[in-house]
Specification:
Number of helices: 7
Number of strands: 16
Structural class: alpha+beta
CATH architecture: Beta Barrel
Strand content: 25-35%
Order of helices and strands: HHHEEEHEEEEHEEEEEEEEHHE
CATH class: Mainly Beta
Strand order of the largest sheet: 7-6-1-2-3-8
Shape: globular
Amino acid sequence: MKRALAAIMFALFCFTARAQVAPPTHESRFHHVFSRHRDTDNLEQRFNDIRCALVLLEAGPKLGTGFFISSDGDVATASHVIGERKFSRNANGSIQVDFAIPPIRITNSTGEQIQIPATAVENNPDAWLADVARIKTGIKTSCWLQEVDDGKSKPGEHLITVGFPGLSFKTLTIYAGLMSARLTTNLPTVILTTGEAIPPSNEFIRVQMPISTGLSGAPILDDENRVIAVVTNAGGWTQELDLLMLAFHGGAFQAPPLPPPDTNQPPNTIRFTLNPMALTAELAGLFHDYASPGYGDAVPLRYLRKPPPQNQPSALPGH
């Protein structure tokens, strides 16, 4: 009897240690025969269970969402929520990321506010480039979200997100929808200090749900309350594209002057020059105006993991 009781207690401990936000209770198919069907994810229950893992982030004038991903208080969010990123190209062609981060204020689900220094943000330029970041707050918590392998998620899967979108007046908000695609994009989302626009190298999970601008940093959750990805933009639009459009409308990308006439050209030849940046801005504007409404992009949570050190000898057995 004592051994059976010990085994039960051990099993309960392992389950609790694995994920602090429990999966929702699903209705059985047999139950639907005798009573009105309710959605299997029970959004009211899930919202109440998840909210303790969500935090409001304030970094200077910026507001955004973060969420606990460990009992040690690690918070995941979108990197652009917590600071200004500047990108340049190194001599070897790689992208250098400089990240200016102000002190961060975190408000948890009970309204408690904690000031976090900029040094608490994990130094991970690869994650910052993918637009995700980890903040090591050191706040012990019993309510955090478990990561799940996003590779098992497919288009058509039901998903939800919870966060603090723009114009919500710091009120936690829930959205429901589905994964519509897994994709990479050639749309330039990073603007180098030289003005060069480059596409991202990471994969995105596209979600179809009525999320609004300002929800960056919120978790994308499967039907077991596990995190698949982090919302990085709504409607496929980013701060960098806003800057690109502002620069274009401000006349920053004027076409170069026409070359002198070529006497060998046939008469009535139309001569023109084209600025690639102006063309990029025009295409971005068309994308913004005609893209499908009610969708957003999220970066898989796996991009938070730091890459292994380069040129390091592997550990030998017994060492």
